[in-house]
Design goal:
This protein is an alpha/beta fold. Helices cover 28% and strands 27% of the residues. Helix 5 packs parallel to helix 6. This is Aryl-alcohol dehydrogenase.
């Protein structure tokens, strides 16, 4: 079928929206009319080739829309269902079977390589265009997803607000609620107040943390963190964050989350912990030098450092849970989302890269 897709052709050139041909859904797949798609820093990293995906490619991995058709063998979704598309996984490996699909043995092949049993998905003027980014490639008017990574939601929910539940917000919320699991009354620090970090802030409030500290270099994002549940904010570019955290907490934080991947900030996220504290690291770093941290801090305090992919989420359970939080007013997604028309994709990319918008969401259909 004919679709419009935003194509990333090189790191230097802007996205171009072009007519393409999309394949029909294969076994276990669904065709989704994309109504909205969030933009994530991973999309930027892929376009800039910081993640080595081949170009040209259709990116986009926070799609939300309506199922148009289903392929052979699909039993849990039907035409007309509203869905949020999230990361893909095989469903049969050890990690998928153990309830940790973000560590799927085929995660890289499926989400970055576009692995698809039914063959090529998108063509432009007879030539294959890279597709299947995070098992969806949702910077398009229609996308193919698997039955496994398209999560049904109620039809009355605003799709432009639900789209970020597929990755960014899912990562922040899942990291706190599924991995760190803070007890009520504890302290948690979030480094980086983007969509993932603010998701973590909201989750910390949900968990009952009584001290929630956000660290960022942008004043606007710190103010947003206060709106969403932070009890304290620290301007990381001007203040010694670790000293400030120690002053606020007394002996250090119980938990921390780093969403930046910046080596010096990662070191701060570990150094700010009290004895037996835990940190979750959710961002990849381009640094080849590693993180500088005195061994006596890590070993002497008995700290736990955990890497986390996609919030270690099981999307089929966490996305409905986040929807319930949204309905209860506990996950105010409208405070972080700003919409852009599909043809404004390059402006939206600039808005997230510059930090002026927390979560840009492209709207393909009104």
């Amino acid at each position: 079928m004919q679709i419009l897709a935003a194509i990333a052709t090189s790191p230097e050139t802007p996205f171009t929206i072009e007519e393409c041909e999309l394949a029909e859904p294969g076994p276990g797949e669904v065709l989704v009319a994309v109504h909205a798609c969030g933009i994530c820093h991973t999309d930027i990293a892929a376009k800039l080739r910081h993640i080595p995906v081949p170009l040209p490619k259709v990116l986009g991995h926070e799609g939300a829309g309506v199922v148009e058709r289903v392929g052979p063998g699909v039993t849990t979704l039907a035409p007309g269902d509203h869905v949020v598309m999230t990361f893909g996984s095989c469903g049969v490996c050890e990690h998928c079977n153990d309830g940790h699909p973000s560590y799927c043995d085929d995660f890289t092949a499926i989400n970055f390589g576009g692995k698809r049993d039914a063959g090529e998905a998108i063509r432009r003027e007879g030539a294959t265009i890279g597709a299947g980014f995070f098992a969806q490639s949702a910077f398009a008017t229609f996308a193919l997803a698997s039955e496994r990574n398209a999560i049904r939601i109620d039809k009355d929910l605003p799709l432009h607000l639900m789209a970020p539940l597929g990755c960014g917000v899912l990562t922040g919320v899942g990291t706190v609620l599924r991995v760190l699991k803070p007890s009520a009354g504890t302290s948690l620090v979030v480094f980086g107040a983007g969509a993932v970090g603010l998701g973590a802030v909201m989750a910390a409030k949900l968990a009952g943390c009584t001290t929630v500290i956000a660290v960022d270099i942008k004043e606007g994002r710190l103010q947003k963190a206060l709106e969403l549940g932070a009890t304290h904010v620290i301007q990381g570019g001007q203040l010694d964050a670790v000293a400030q955290i120690m002053s606020i907490t007394g002996t250090g934080a119980h938990f921390s989350v780093d969403t930046t991947g910046v080596p010096d900030v990662v070191a701060q996220s570990i150094a700010c912990l009290r004895k037996r504290g835990s940190t979750a690291q959710v961002a990849l770093s381009s640094s080849k030098d590693g993180y500088k941290l005195a061994p006596n801090i890590f070993v002497g305090r008995g700290l736990q450092v955990r890497g986390v992919v996609e919030g270690d989420a099981v999307p089929s359970s966490l996305i409905p849970q986040m929807v319930a939080f949204y309905r209860a007013g506990l996950l105010p997604l409208e405070k972080i989302v700003q919409t852009f028309r599909f043809d404004q994709i390059n402006e939206a990319m600039h808005a997230i890269a510059s930090g002026e918008v927390v979560k840009p969401v492209l709207v393909m259909k009104s």
